[in-house]
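Title: Comparing notes on inverse folding

I've been comparing how different people in this forum approach sequence design from structure. To keep things fair, I'm posting one structure and asking everyone to reply with a full sequence. Here's the target:
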């Protein structure tokens, strides 16, 4: 199990991560999401032992990761940008991994390359970004690690390569019961594979739960107002987002229940249809509400001053 306990990391007195705690169990795919500069890559580099945390603990099966080669041997890490020796061929990189990682499985690499089709005699420096990402995934997975840490691993991949990546990752988890932490802006992809999700905002864990529980926080509705929605509907505090095409209104609401459905019907709705909300829609809705909250807060502070 990966345990991140109350981790703090800052630069020049400015916090980047504050009191961050995460658990990743064997056999679990855990998603890490957040806006740009939320602290995701810094957290990942602390989790892989690249950065030294300022306080807190990061443990793999009870052992610290920083400055611990034995633990690092058990971790596969695909960075958001992978740099290798540009003059080496793909085949030479495989040989290098065989030397440095005792558990490296060349047969597995070759099997993965049956899918990803990298030319093994091609120099790494001439590979495209997507090809380098595929190479990184194949090399790190072929180490047969107990844990995989992935930072934007689908960056640069075409749709077919993305689909292959997700399939192979899930297959690896199912077959070997490895624990995976994956950070990505491709929320549609994460939704298909993740068991649980942590949402970071400005270096703080904002939400952390099973994916289905997180999606249950908000509900998407299709609502029909044949004569148009009255103004009172727009003032309902449960509605976080509303748009319409003709008489069909799409809403994202919090705390949806039968009472709220009755309120809409009383306002003139002829149909109220709950729909599943996607992880991407949930994230966008929460992000869009933040500036409004900040504005409301500043108004409150101004009023208190007066």
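Reply #1:
Here's my take.
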């Amino acid at each position: 199990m990966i345990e991140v306990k109350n981790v703090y990391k800052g630069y020049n007195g400015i916090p980047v991560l504050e009191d961050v705690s995460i658990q990743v169990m064997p056999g679990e795919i855990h998603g890490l999401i957040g806006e740009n500069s939320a602290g995701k890559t810094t957290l990942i580099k602390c989790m892989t032992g690249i950065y030294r945390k300022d306080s807190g603990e990061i443990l793999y099966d009870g052992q610290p990761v920083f400055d611990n080669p034995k633990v690092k041997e058990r971790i596969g890490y695909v960075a958001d940008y992978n740099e290798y020796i540009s003059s080496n061929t793909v085949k030479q990189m495989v040989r290098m991994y065989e030397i440095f990682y005792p558990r490296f499985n060349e047969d597995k690499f070759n099997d993965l390359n049956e899918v990803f089709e990298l030319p093994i005699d091609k120099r790494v420096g001439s590979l495209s970004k997507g090809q380098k990402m595929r190479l990184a995934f194949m090399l790190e997975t072929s180490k047969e690690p107990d844990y995989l840490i992935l930072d934007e691993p689908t960056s640069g991949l075409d749709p077919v390569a993305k689909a292959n990546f997700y399939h192979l990752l899930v297959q690896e988890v199912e077959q070997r019961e490895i624990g995976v932490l994956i950070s990505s802006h491709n929320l549609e992809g994460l939704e298909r594979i993740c068991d649980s999700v942590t949402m970071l905002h400005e270096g703080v864990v904002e939400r952390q739960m099973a994916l289905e529980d997180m999606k249950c926080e908000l509900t998407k509705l299709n609502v029909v107002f044949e004569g148009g929605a009255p103004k009172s509907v727009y003032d309902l505090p449960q509605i976080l987002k509303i748009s319409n095409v003709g008489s069909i209104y799409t809403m994202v609401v919090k705390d949806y229940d039968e009472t709220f459905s009755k309120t809409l019907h009383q306002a003139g709705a002829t149909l109220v249809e709950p729909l599943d909300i996607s992880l991407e829609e949930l994230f966008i809705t929460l992000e869009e509400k933040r500036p409004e909250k900040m504005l409301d807060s500043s108004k409150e502070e101004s009023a208190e001053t007066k």
